[in-house]
Design brief:
Layout (H helix, E strand, L loop, with lengths): L11 H21 L9 H23 L5 H19 L13 H19 L1 H6 L9 H22 L1 H16 L14 H9 L8 H7 L1 H14 L2 H13 L5 H17 L2 H19 L3 H14 L9 H10 L3 H7 L1 H22 L12 H8 L3 H12 L4 H16 L9 H35 L1 H13 L3 H15 L5 H11 L1 H6 L4 H14 L8 H10 L3 H11 L1 H12 L9 H23 L8 H15 L2 H5 L4
Helix pairs in contact: 2-3, 2-21, 3-4, 3-6, 3-21, 4-6, 6-7, 6-21, 7-21, 9-15, 9-21, 10-20, 10-21, 11-12, 11-18, 12-13, 12-14, 12-17, 13-14, 13-27, 14-17, 14-27, 14-28, 15-24, 15-26, 17-29, 17-30, 19-20, 21-24, 22-23, 23-24, 23-26, 24-26, 26-29, 27-28, 30-31
Function: Part of the tripartite ATP-independent periplasmic (TRAP) transport system.
Membrane topology: Multi-pass membrane protein
Keywords: Cell inner membrane, Cell membrane, Membrane, Transmembrane, Transmembrane helix, Transport
Length: about 650
């Protein structure tokens, strides 16, 4: 055995540090670990894959081409996805992913039976009078089963953390009358609870699940088709062509490619795993530290859910919840998204300049024209989606048209052409990817139903008013903190829904614009993916970067500083969300971009050369003032 260097003795300090870190990781694991994806083989694996593909095909037909009523569509979708959850996701991380125990068939069978019962009762549900028409014994049994199955599905797919919150809300619904005082409510019987939660569209079968069953599913399919036909490779290559030769080129590639891919995938964690597997090792080879490489990828990937025209599932839920047209949301998000990425890109450049990192070897950089010639066709689907939204088509049809465009352009080249086996894989993969989204949306529906029947939102509003008084700034700070807290370990749609139901009414009472207020909450719901102590995106990056996840998360927060300032800026100055004259919009963008650049330079301690501490402090303060300056200069704020 060769010489391995000095051996560090395990003293008390090292033991305590190691123990604390392991304890912390264990707590996070217990709260947020999910079941494993099963790896079924043989006839069983093929059968499950066929079922998943058939479910996807039915969902596309029902959402885009049939006249199935929304309630029947949502019930059927949840039932089928519950079946897939029990067949594809193990109960715990310690389960054997190669085996399918007998009790999973019972769960799948109960899901089908409950869904089938509700489908036979849709006409009765549509005409019954809530809380007046009594529930039959079969109604109670089926409703209880579907709720229990949904809770188990969310535990497997999104972890115990969100499940515990849902159970807490359910306990509050059933036993909150015992509390008394301002947080108490009237007595709610079990049948009353089931009536609101299952037999109306205010609970389990409400907006979140309806979105998951329609355009969220279709946009996941769009992203899957694009990835399977080589679209994600094109976005990476074009990013390399444009920025690979500049200082810190690989990190800039990560920023651009992750943003492009993130707007399609809508999931920070999957984006980190997909693009980070290439960009993080590349950044490390160039000379960036492991922590910085992971943090850049996390910050860039997380912001993809905020980039139009696709954005993430939460943006679709925002459109449903606020009745604001999705096109208006996408347009309003354009400048904030640019302002999100400007500080990240600049910080990467300044860090490269400070430590003397150059770009990629020219031989590794694909030529722009050759890249566009080879894969420029993949820009067409994004143009088609934008065209569809601008021309008033619903997000459902925008996703369908975008997917059809990918299929058409993929036929132009033999290596990207879709074959029947590829189509089969796309359908199955789309369904599998949507399993976790369904669990999160079911959880959100249960929470919304509970809040509706107890009036908790108004009580929560009183609590926020007690903390912040009538100060809009303090209320926004409280709203941001609570949204980050609600989003710890949760999928973005669940975090946004909780914030929208509990916090948005308070913001509207304070006079905050509806669009600005909900976009503010959406930003902080997305940012919960990289905010310590949970930071699920950072945990995904830690294995690729070989660095501690919380160090990655802390640095990612610093790199993504724009995401924590821009929402305050567009609430303060609606010109940033295109509410104003062209001059107001342009001046707002320029001033905020300038202010963010000053803040980044102060953070990095480098501009054209190293900056002293006093200069950095003054630059940071000046940057903050510049960000919020325009309304006072030009009278844009009434």
């Amino acid at each position: 055995m060769g010489f391995q260097g000095p051996v560090r003795r395990a003293g008390p300090g090292l033991f305590i540090t190691s123990y604390c870190r392991n304890f912390e990781l264990s707590l996070v694991s217990i709260a947020f670990d999910t079941g494993l994806r099963r790896k079924l083989t043989g006839k069983l694996g093929t059968g499950v894959k066929v079922f998943a593909a058939a479910t996807a095909a039915w969902t596309v037909y029902a959402a885009g081409f049939s006249r199935t009523d929304v309630l029947s569509l949502t019930i059927t979708f949840l039932s089928l996805m519950l079946v897939l959850t029990f067949l594809l996701i193990t109960p715990t991380v310690k389960s054997n992913p190669a085996k399918l125990p007998w009790f999973e068939w019972i769960g799948a069978g109960l899901a089908l039976a409950a869904g089938g019962y509700f489908l036979t009762q849709t006409e009765n549900i549509a005409v019954r009078i809530t809380l007046l028409t009594p529930l039959s014994t079969y109604d109670v049994a089926a409703a209880t089963a579907i709720i229990l199955l949904s809770i188990e599905a969310m535990r497997r797919t999104v972890g115990l953390g969100l499940t515990a919150i849902v159970l807490l809300f359910i306990a509050y619904n059933l036993f909150g009358d015992l509390l008394g005082g301002p947080m108490g409510h009237g007595e709610i019987s079990y049948t009353h609870f089931l009536d609101i939660m299952v037999f109306t569209t205010d609970g389990l079968f409400g907006v979140p699940l309806r979105v998951a069953a329609t355009y969220a599913f279709l946009f996941v399919m769009f992203g899957t088709v694009l990835a399977k036909t080589g679209g994600s490779d094109f976005f990476f290559d074009i990013a390399a062509s444009l920025t690979g030769g500049t200082k810190g080129g690989p990190a800039k590639i990560a920023v651009i490619s992750s943003g492009m891919y993130g707007t399609i995938s809508g999931s920070p964690t999957s984006d980190v795993v997909t693009t980070g597997s290439v960009t993080i090792p590349m950044m490390k080879r160039l000379g960036y530290s492991s922590t910085f490489a992971g943090a850049v990828e996390v910050a860039a990937s997380t912001g993809g859910s905020l980039v139009p025209p696709v954005m993430g599932a939460a943006a679709f839920i925002m459109a449903e919840y606020t009745n604001i047209d999705y096109l208006d949301i996408a347009l309003a998000a354009i400048l904030p998204a640019m302002l999100y990425y400007i500080p990240i890109y600049l910080q990467v450049h300044l860090r490269a300049s400070k430590i003397g990192l150059e770009g990629l070897d020219p031989s590794l950089i694909p030529p722009v024209l050759a890249t566009l010639k080879r894969g420029g066709m993949f820009l067409v689907p994004l143009v088609v989606i934008t065209w569809a939204l601008v021309n008033g088509y619903t997000p459902t049809y925008a996703a369908i048209y975008g997917t059809m465009a990918v299929v058409v352009v993929s036929m132009l080249r033999k290596d990207t052409r879709l074959t029947p086996s590829r189509v089969f894989d796309i359908l199955a993969d789309t369904c599998v990817k949507t399993v976790a989204v369904t669990g999160a949306c079911a959880a959100a529906g249960l929470v919304i139903g509970g809040i509706t029947m107890t009036g908790l939102a108004s009580k929560f509003g009183v609590l926020v008013f007690l903390i912040s008084g009538d100060s809009v700034l303090v209320s926004l700070m409280v709203a941001a903190g609570l949204t980050l807290l609600l989003g710890l370990g949760m999928p973005t749609p669940s975090a946004y829904i909780l914030a929208a139901v509990l916090i948005a009414p308070v913001m509207q009472d304070l006079g905050v614009d509806l669009m600005a207020g909900h976009l503010f909450l959406l930003y902080f719901a997305v940012m919960s993916a990289l905010t310590p102590p949970v930071a699920v995106a950072a945990y995904a990056a830690s294995a690729l970067a070989d660095a501690p996840p919380l160090k990655i998360a802390a640095l990612a927060v610093r790199i993504a500083i724009g995401a924590f300032l821009v929402p305050f800026a567009f609430v303060h100055d609606p010109a940033l969300i295109l509410q104003g004259t062209p001059f107001e919009i342009a001046s707002a963008f320029i001033l905020v971009a300038t202010g963010l650049s000053m803040v980044v330079a102060a953070q990095e301690g480098y501009l054209k050369g190293p900056l002293t501490v006093p200069i950095r402090l003054m630059l940071f303060i000046a940057g903050l003032c510049t960000i919020f300056l325009r309304p006072y200069l030009f009278g844009g704020l009434s």
